[in-house]
Design goal:
heterodimer, A: about 475 residues, alpha+beta, Arc Repressor Mutant, subunit A, 3 domains, nine-stranded mixed beta sheet, three-stranded antiparallel beta sheet, B: about 475 residues, alpha/beta, Amidase signature (AS) enzymes, eleven-stranded mixed beta sheet, 11 strands, globular
Chain lengths: ~475, ~475
């Protein structure tokens, strides 16, 4: 929800999400598709666009595009490639091979966690460009001394997913991208790393008086590479347009740039300056027509999608999860940690505990979490559930497990000195504290429930948090028993 | 072997069998050809670069293989002249353009690798119209090639350097590329055999693109059998070219010598319309010769061919405008410095491209522009479809078609340089096969009133190379006079 737009205006937002596919090699050559390598090491005559070189389509990229289409409920169709012609130094051939009027996927939908549905117009294959680095004067293009181009990314396969202009708020746009990201990761088509540019979003934003059916003039904001940028840019742009219209002005259709630091959009190029891309059929490639058997095989290889996985987690809670737990489930599935959580619940750990530890502790380091041995995690939570380890101890052992990628939770607890808290020493500690607080003990024995908290707190303090709350309560009850 | 012309004019097949049998060294074969080059190249300028040192190393390696009893290929020790738009690893590949000055490809074209595997010796890179755009080999950054039969005349183009090299005895074999007739027309002008294969029969990987949907690499030779042999060496599926056809190379020599008895030959009116009377007369004589050899010759009219030229001069420039965009000064070749990338790009392209290349880039850019695409590019594609359908109808009643290769014999250097339309008309008879992706061959058949060679063109359906070469061989046998040795 826009905080500033008010009730008189409505946003109309359509998103174009570029997703780098998680293939071993590039779209049209055998070069490695990898992020972060030394510049210009993953290049060959084809992806450098050297004279005489020719593209050969990577079927692995086609399969990932088909997987995306399947997950988004698209029709997977016979398709073809076109050339999109424009000059830019990071575009080796000075044209991009892309799909134009015959995309591989058309007409899908994405249901967001709040139940709203956004239509997908198309999801097509194309190649990425290289990266230009402007050197000198803080990297700004107009003041740079010179520019360097890294072609490692040139020819990396992309799927561009175009939504219908059915998104109505910046928050919904954010939810759409987050859900889309989870779906892309679930299909195995993408790593979804926005911070590495694996997912980049262009937002088409217009505003119109609330209740009006006619679309306003739209502006396209390019290259939004985080959920935060996306939200802020859309809100800024909608506010800008409303202010202009309220002042009696008009919106110029144009492409705009988002300045993250300044927190505002500015003109990149007007409609008049827009490129004429002179699309025409790519004569170096043949049409692509996946058969039904291939489409089915790809579909069969896709694991459960986020919506289904959220339902599966919610079903673990008797009477359904609380709203806070729903948010935690959303986060856990987004991060792909639900298999870890399920390993604990499958081992008999209560869902509430498994969700809390996964969403609160494990999720702080997603990379480590995804490496964590599931059996270690399940065993540890079992020790907490049966009272062997306290919450504090469990968290300490979990931190070590995450660091090491796994291990024996009991052994780690011993390493950390938690072994000394055997029932014998706990009983002694509790007895000492009871003896030191006779008045409070009398009230406890008379049934004053508040005193339970007092004694548990005192024992925790005395043990540096290493005592198990349940065990303390049990010992108190034993002492009070006639 | 001595360095006289007789040695240099032997067929590739003869040379290869002599070298393979150890009767003659590849080095001696090479020396004989280099001697001819030394004597005549200054007058002809067929080559952009003669690769003497590289060729000597290669010939010596082949001789070592022969001596060691190792198998050598079907072109063992045979010198081959390569059009300079075929990439050669580490060796300058210029497309006769200033814009590729200094560029050395880091890879070999597929056909170059196949030549090497067959034991061929690349003797040099031949001159061409810049980026294969032209019909006279005058549009070259290094100056025009001259016709070995008359140095005041053009050799045709754009593969004029390869045609002249084979005609002059610089090499028994040459490779060219044919987008709208660029092998067949210079073959006709230079009195050699030149053949454009079925689209996809020869890999385009490493052929610097002019118009990708029309370009095809093909052979030049002094005999039909040699041309067929060369096609068998370079053809066949290549996984690096997505438009390459599945399967092995066409069995081009499989029907040589079968004759034409019973074949239905369509003498195509549109492939004679506008031809000079002497050229038309040779074509009619060729038709008669085939009839004498047992073919049933009938006149056929294919009116759609008349629209081919217009369609071609939209489609080829449209693709070229995109294919040549990469010469932007950023990564290789010429760079003219300027304050920013866009200005550097403009300055480089302004200085690096010749007038004809610029003309076609402008034409093609216009044809693809928003608002004009359907009227130009779209309409041309529809015409292309009509031409394909017209061919199909003609081949329902005929096995092959016959016509002139070019409307005239070789014209004078400079005579059409300022008249692009007149120049474009040289391609009138060759373009239909490119639009359809069909094979076609030009076979020398007598001379014109000026004493210069005339080429007769045979056209066949896709993948009918064996038939095409069979008819060409029959024409070769029936040629009214001995091959003219320029």
């Amino acid at each position: 929800m826009s905080t500033t737009l008010g009730d008189d205006w409505e946003m109309v937002i359509g998103l174009e999400v570029h997703c780098e596919l998680l293939t071993a090699t590039k779209l049209f050559c055998g070069c490695r598709n990898a992020f972060g390598d030394e510049p210009n090491t993953n290049v060959c005559p084809v992806c450098l666009g050297l004279p005489g070189s020719l593209p050969v389509l990577n079927t692995g990229a086609v399969e990932r595009a088909m997987a995306i289409g399947t997950a988004l409920g698209c029709e997977i169709r016979p398709s073809s490639f076109h050339r999109k012609n424009y000059f830019y130094p990071d575009q080796p051939k000075d044209y991009q091979i892309s799909q134009y009027d015959e995309p591989i996927n058309t007409g899908g939908r994405l249901e967001l966690p709040d139940g709203s549905v956004v239509g997908i117009t198309r999801a097509h294959l194309e190649e990425d460009t290289g990266k230009t680095l402007h050197v000198g004067e803080g990297g700004r293009i107009h003041a740079a001394d010179h520019s360097l181009v890294d072609y490692n990314r040139a020819g990396v396969p992309l799927v561009e997913i175009v939504s219908e202009p059915e998104i109505r708020t910046a928050a919904q746009a954010r939810a759409y991208v987050a859900e889309l990201r989870a779906v892309l990761v679930a299909t195995g088509a993408s790593d979804g790393r926005m911070e590495e540019g694996s997912m980049r979003v262009d937002a088409n934003v217009s505003v119109r008086p609330a209740g009006n059916e006619v679309m306003g003039t739209r502006c396209e904001i390019k290259n939004l590479n985080s959920l935060r940028s996306l939200t802020r840019a859309i809100e800024y742009e909608a506010d800008r347009q409303v202010a202009l219209l309220d002042a009696g002005g008009t919106i110029d259709q144009e492409t705009r740039h988002w300045d993250e630091e300044a927190g505002r959009t500015s003109t990149m190029r007007s409609k008049e300056e827009a490129n004429d891309y002179r699309y025409f059929p790519e004569p170096d490639l043949v049409p692509l027509a996946p058969g039904a058997e291939w489409i089915e095989r790809v579909a069969a290889g896709i694991g459960p999608l986020p919506a289904e996985r959220r339902l599966a987690l919610a079903a673990l809670f008797d009477g359904g999860p609380t709203p806070a737990q729903r948010d935690q489930i959303l986060a856990v599935v987004d991060l792909g940690l639900d298999p870890l959580l399920r390993s604990a619940t499958d081992a008999g750990v209560p869902a509430t505990l498994a969700l809390a530890r996964t969403a609160n502790e494990v999720a702080t380091d997603t990379d480590a979490a995804l490496r964590l041995e599931r059996t270690s995690f399940a065993t540890l939570l079992g020790l907490e559930a049966n009272g062997t380890l306290s919450a504090t101890q469990t968290k300490a052992v979990l931190a070590v497990l995450l660091e090491r990628g796994g291990g024996d939770p009991g052994g780690i607890a011993a390493e950390l000195g938690f072994e000394s808290l055997s029932s014998g020493s706990l009983a002694a500690t509790v007895a000492d504290i009871v003896a030191a607080h006779p008045d409070e003990w009398a009230r406890f024995v008379e049934g004053d429930k508040k005193m339970t908290g007092f004694f548990v707190g005192a024992v925790m303090k005395a043990t540096g948090g290493n005592a198990n709350g349940k065990a303390v309560t049990a010992e108190l009850a034993r002492l009070a028993a006639p | 072997m001595s360095a006289d012309g007789r040695s240099a004019r032997r067929t590739a097949a003869d040379i290869a069998s002599a070298v393979a049998a150890g009767e003659e060294s590849a080095a001696a074969v090479l020396d004989a050809h280099l001697a001819v080059i030394e004597s005549r190249e200054p007058d002809l300028h067929a080559f952009v670069s003669v690769l003497g040192d590289e060729a000597r190393e290669r010939a010596a390696a082949i001789d070592r293989s022969v001596a060691a009893g190792e198998p050598v290929g079907p072109l063992a020790g045979v010198p081959v002249a390569l059009k300079d738009n075929l990439c050669t690893l580490g060796l300058a590949t210029t497309c006769s353009s200033k814009i590729l000055e200094g560029w050395r490809p880091p890879y070999d074209a597929t056909v170059v690798r196949r030549l090497a595997d067959a034991g061929a010796v690349i003797i040099g890179k031949t001159n061409m119209d810049e980026f294969a755009m032209g019909s006279s080999t005058e549009n070259s950054s290094s100056g025009p090639t001259r016709n070995p039969h008359d140095t005041a005349k053009v050799p045709g183009g754009s593969s004029g350097g390869s045609a002249a090299a084979v005609a002059a005895g610089f090499a028994p074999l040459g490779l060219g590329s044919d987008t709208g007739g660029s092998i067949r027309q210079p073959a006709a002008f230079c009195g050699v055999v030149g053949m454009k294969p079925t689209y996809g029969a020869v890999s385009r990987y490493g052929l610097v693109a002019f118009a990708s949907s029309l370009d095809q690499i093909g052979p030049f030779a002094t005999t039909v059998a040699d041309a067929a042999l060369l096609l068998e060496v370079i053809g066949g599926h290549d996984p690096a070219d997505s438009t390459s056809l599945d399967g092995p190379a066409p069995a081009a020599r499989s029907r040589l010598g079968e004759g034409v008895d019973g074949l239905r030959v369509g003498l195509c009116a549109q492939l004679l319309t506008g031809a000079a009377p002497d050229v038309a007369a040779r074509v009619h004589e060729a038709a008669e010769a085939l009839a004498v050899a047992g073919a049933r010759v009938e006149e056929v009219s294919i009116p759609e061919f008349d629209y081919g030229l217009s369609a071609y001069y939209l489609l080829a420039p449209a693709e070229a405008s995109s294919n040549l965009a990469r010469y932007d000064g950023v990564r290789y070749g010429l760079r003219v410095d300027a304050p920013d990338a866009a200005a550097m790009n403009r300055a480089t392209r302004t200085a690096g491209f010749g007038a004809e290349v610029k003309r076609r880039i402008m034409l093609g850019t216009y044809a693809l522009s928003a608002g004009y695409y359907d009227a130009y590019y779209g309409q041309a594609q529809r015409v292309r479809t009509l031409v394909v359908e017209a061919f199909a109808r003609a081949y329902a009643d005929h096995d092959v078609l016959l016509g002139a290769t070019a409307p005239t014999t070789a014209f004078a250097i400079g005579s059409k340089a300022d008249d692009p339309l007149a120049m474009y008309l040289s391609d009138l008879f060759t373009i239909p096969s490119n639009l359809a992706g069909h094979p076609a061959i030009s076979v020398p058949f007598g001379t014109g009133d000026d004493g210069l060679p005339v080429g007769v063109q045979v056209l066949a359906p896709a993948l009918a190379e064996p038939l095409l070469f069979a008819v060409a061989a029959a024409l070769e046998v029936a040629t009214p006079q001995e091959e003219t040795v320029p």
